[in-house]
Design a protein that fits this description.
about 375 residues, alpha+beta, 7-stranded antiparallel sheet, 11 helices, 9 strands, disordered N terminus
Length: about 375
């Protein structure tokens, strides 16, 4: 099996993540903005919190739903930090489905899946149908492709779950349904690959998808796991002094020489009390994995060996750096920025040696 067709697998899933918000949340966002405006209240009671909560809420800049059965702000958090739905609200305590956004979400999900099926059938599955077969590709892109499947599955499930909360599902049901919808779509694509003679069903892809969804659901039931957040970074290889893909055309989605997947740790919450008091709450630590020389050929046309690199570096908690705003959707974007890792001090370990980058992946390095 050639490497080129395989590049489309994680690409298709990442395309879904990149476009599903606009396709599916149009209906909920239009209806919900009106709802948020109608529910901006001034708190005059301490019924749902302490006096300190009362003072904080009086000066809060974010609309709070207090009398319509929604969770309190301190009940809707992620790793101890305020969490947001698309419109800056908290989800309902008990499921009460709102027909308009629910129909919009269902229609958008079905229409998007069908439209993508047509595109995939014409571009990748046409004239290549055959018996279902399995092709294991765990070594593809030195394993980085599986990180892409994990990240795409986790991110897609998160987006779907958050949209379901806007539809009126409570947090638990939205989490389970969002994870199920994310896994259903990604499994469907893998099964279709199994009937394509050029590709094949990849067990490791399916496992990575399932682990990504499973981690999303597990974070709901085991809050400690919220201290670990999947992150993604992308800087074109030619900007950093690395060798870009030259064996085939590349996009930012399957340009693995320019991509790193991370797991960010909220260190302040992981340290014991004494140490946590002196650790900056905006400073995180991330561990990551990337590769070099994927799909790179030399002057004679021969492929270069692909090298993996393990990374550990300082990272940033954007919820503590970017101020909270009055606009609900802005706060959701602010929350979702915690899935992106920007350049920062990083220790890199690979077969080429160990070096410290001041602004990884840029080539400002101190070799060891």
């Amino acid at each position: 099996m050639s490497a080129s067709p395989l590049t489309h697998r994680v690409s298709r899933h990442m395309i879904v993540v990149a476009t599903i918000v606009g396709v599916l949340c149009l209906g909920p966002s239009v209806r919900g903005e009106c709802s948020v405006l109608s529910n901006q209240l001034t708190i005059h009671s301490t019924e749902h919190g302490t006096a300190d909560d009362f003072q904080r809420q009086q000066h809060d800049t974010v609309p709070i739903d207090t009398l319509n059965g929604r969770l309190r702000r301190d009940e809707f958090t992620y790793a101890g930090w305020q969490r947001y739905t698309f419109l800056g609200r908290t989800p309902l305590r008990e499921t009460e489905i709102d027909p308009i956004p629910t129909i919009a979400l269902a229609a958008g999900y079905a229409g998007f899946a069908y439209g993508l099926h047509v595109i995939q059938a014409n571009a990748w599955w046409a004239d290549s149908r055959g018996p279902f077969h399995v092709v294991e590709d765990i070594e593809y892109a030195k394993g980085l492709d599986k990180g892409g499947h994990f990240f795409a599955a986790h991110t897609m499930s998160t987006l779907l779950g958050d949209m379901l909360m806007e539809c009126g599902f409570n947090k638990e049901e939205a989490t389970l349904l969002g994870g199920g919808m994310g896994l259903a779509y990604m499994t469907y694509v893998e099964v279709e690959d199994g009937f394509a003679t050029k590709w094949g069903f990849s067990p490791s892809d399916a496992i990575a998808n399932s682990v990504g969804v499973g981690f999303y659901v597990a974070q709901h039931y085991v809050p400690w796991l919220e201290n670990l957040t999947p992150r993604w970074s992308y800087v074109p290889a030619q900007w950093t002094g690395a060798r870009p893909i030259n064996e085939r055309p590349a996009t930012f989605i399957d340009d693995y020489n320019s991509t790193t997947f991370w797991l960010a740790m909220d260190v302040e919450r992981l340290l014991p009390n004494g140490a946590a008091d002196i650790w900056p709450d905006w400073l995180m630590v991330s561990v990551g994995y990337g590769i070099r020389n994927y799909a790179v050929v030399d002057g004679s046309g021969g492929p270069q060996p692909v090298n993996g690199k393990f990374l550990i570096g300082l990272d940033y908690n954007w919820l503590k750096i970017i101020p909270e705003a009055r606009f609900g959707f802005f706060n959701y974007v602010r929350f979702f920025l915690n899935r992106v890792r920007l350049p920062g001090p990083t220790l890199e370990i690979s077969s080429e040696g160990t070096r410290f980058g001041l602004l990884y992946p840029f080539a400002i390095v101190i070799p060891f």
